[in-house]
What does this fold into?
Amino acid sequence: MVSACQSNVRPPIVPAVEVRQCADSALEIIGGVEPVYFLPLSAPLESRIDTGAETSSVHVENLRTFERDGEKWVGFEISGTRFEKRIQRKTVIRRQLKDEERVVVNLDVKIGDEIITAEFTLADRSKFEYEGLIGRNILNGRFIVDPSLEHTLR
It folds into this structure.
């Protein structure tokens, strides 16, 4: 009998997996739904954590664009609070029925103990269960997502 170590059969090649660790600490594990504070709001919005989304998104109402000092700005409301932000860019979101052009702005959010400034698309999410969607632009390098969990952050 020939052992596996002595045979001419080679084990299957397994691709290398890069494991990265934060220099300061391990990444925090969060769930598929978490409370996210859109500053300066004092109450969080229940937000879907979506590793499939490249850019984060938030439900807004009363959206209007205008010019200020030669730059394009947008005014909108989140949970009844008025915001005015400079437009960073516009993007196209691919949808099954029809592509949708959205405005992208920088917003400050508090997730757990961390305050993050990140790009958000402004959207009508009234048909969705959650007003906020947190994508990879916030998750990468900060969090590991376990979709079997919810509300791991306070």
